[in-house]
Input
Amino acid sequence: MGKKRKHNESEAAEPAKQDDGFAPERPKRTLLGWKDKPEEKGTDSQVFRNKEKVLVTCSRRINFRYRHLMLNMVSLLPNCKKDNKVESKETKGATLNELVELRNCSSCLFFECRKHQDLYLWMAKCPGGPSVKFLVKAVHTMEELKLTGNHLKGSRPLLTFSNNFDKDPHWKLLKELLMQIFATPKDHRKAKPYHDHVFVFSILDNHIWFRNYQISVPHNEANKVDRGGLEKMTLVEVGPRFCLNPIKIFGGSFGGPTLYENPFYVSPNLERALKKKQKASKFAKKVKAKTRRKMHELSNHLEPDEFTDLWNE
Amino acid sequence: MEMTISPNFLNTNPYKHLFDLVLKADLTLFSRAKMIDDDLDLNGQISGSESESEYEGSEVVRLAEPAKESIYNKDGLIDKLGDISWPDNVEWIHKLSVDIDTQEDVNVEDDIARELSFFTQALEGTRQAFVKLESMGLPFLRPSDYYAEMVKTDSHMEKIRGSLLAEKREIEEREEKRKAREAKKLAKEVQAEKQKERAKQKKEMIESVKKWRKQRQRNGFAGGDEDGEMVMDFEEGKAFERSSKKRPGVSPGDRSGGKAGQFGGKGKKGMNKKANRREFRNSKFGFGGRKGLKKQNTAETTDDLGSFNKSNPRNKRHKA
Output
């Protein structure tokens, strides 16, 4: 520490001496090295930099299929950090928020699997942002042999949204959330240069459907498509595929006031219970129908047939 | 119903205790009625009551479905949207998002139509995006010699390729089998014709030999040249018709007729499987079988030293 003080003093003395000298000023010495005179920083603070970091975790007792889906998401998002499994108690309350803060992330994708059957996906913007809980259905992972496409790992995707995202405020909010989470930041370390795949987010029947396609277009140069090549463009599906059913939108991260509740949402437990009831009522209906028939027969007697006594003899 | 009672009245009234009782009774009745009212009012709101109390001061628009009522806080949603969205002057290159017009009349249950709608959305989106990227002048298409880590491993892509090829092969095989079935019908008829021809020829041959013998007998076995008397087919041109199928590499000393190693390798598939098999077994076991082919000094066997020490050392009987 003493040395540093001395150095400062000498520094302070030198410029005073050299002020009227001919030699140019020595560059100022800082802790990080030599720096020239500070330049004007006009526009640097205005440049937008996407610093989105996504934390991807899951709950314990997750199914193999959903685990593979989570791993696929990790490979699709180069700006994500994968964390260990979270205990079931920690899914409520502030623990998840703390975890996100700890890992220095700005949003979170939490895959919660219940009863080894149902997958719920939480998407949250972490410091104070909104969060959404989805029910995930129709999951097909990238490992399926029918999905034959392939693309660079870490290349920035093109995002396409169907225009019915702009019709209602809750869809607009979801669109913004999806865009911020799924768009790879431009100057990310792990981002690869070219654009060779496209994400599709589309709303059908109040569900959000997700698809991922590889783009193959005939080209010879890297910055120009061949003439007429846009017509010959083909898309091959890479996967994964899933369908999201929004359940609730909350004002805070993993909690907070409910901003939106889906009126068409039926919980999977309820669905299963209804199906069972339907099946159970089959027998009861049969019995009822039998008794009804008996009563009907008793009340309306059949007319005696003309051929009944034909073979009596 | 509220009763405003001045404190003086209570203190000075001789029937104060009765009034007290009445008051209490009234109050309890009143409160119970209020509770019932509350229940009726908050029937559908109970689920959202906590949130309502927390989020006071904003309009809570209730979305009443025929069966359900649910929360729909438009202002809150728009507020949050304003909170999280990026500034408006962010360039498109950061977002890379395109909005596509879609038709609403896609049936969700119809798989093909649904996937087609997604496909067209993606196609339209990439076209628009590529036009923009081209105008920006940045490289966006991967060159063919750019090798980097892909999202699916090479081994996985090999598996995919294998399954695709297997599918293609199955389809081709099915086609071939169908064609073979058709051809078999035709072939049967052709075969029948050929058999008849051969039988006829054989008969003719035997007849001609018999004739020749008779003629010779008649002429008293006179030798010499009898030209032009008998036409012997087999001398002239048409020799005994052997099967024109060449068995490759049949050497003169080969008594098995080239069929020694034939069936063991790969049998011919299809219709002539059984015929081949019959031929092979005939050659091996018919008419007393193949004699003495076990040890042969041929070009192949002189250099072949593999038969030494062939026996399994475990099976060797140890001579005690």
In short: The mean pLDDT of chain B is 73. The CA atoms of residues 269 and 276 of chain B lie 10 Å apart. Chain B touches chain A through 75 residues (CB under 8 Å).
